[in-house]
Amino acid sequence: MAASAARRRRPSREPGEPSTAVSGVNGWQDDPGDNVPPTVPAELRPVPDLSIAPLRMRIDATPAPAAGAYEPGTPEFRYWSAAEGLARGAAFWRQFLPEGTTWQPGEELRVLLDEGVDFNAFYDRHALNFFHGTAGGRTVFSGESPDIVCHEQGHAVLDVLRPELFDAGSIEAAAFHESFADICAILAGLQLQSLRVAILSDTSGDVSRSSRLSRLAEQLGWAIRQMSRDAVDPDCLRNAVNSFFYHSPEELPARGPAAALSSEPHSFSRVFTGAFFEALAGGFRQPATPTEVDLQKVGFDLARLLAAAVQAAPVVPEYFSQVAAALIAADASNGGKYRNVLTSAFVRRGILSAHAAVGMTAVQAAMPLAAARAAVAEVASSRELPHLALAGADYGLGDTPLLVRAASEPRRLVTAAAAIGVGSISAPSSERAARAFVEDLIQRGHIDAGDHGEIAGWIVHPHTFKTHCLVKSENGFVLSRILFDCGFHPHMVG
Ligand SMILES: [Zn+2]
Question: The whole model's pTM is what?
Answer without folding.
Answer: 0.93
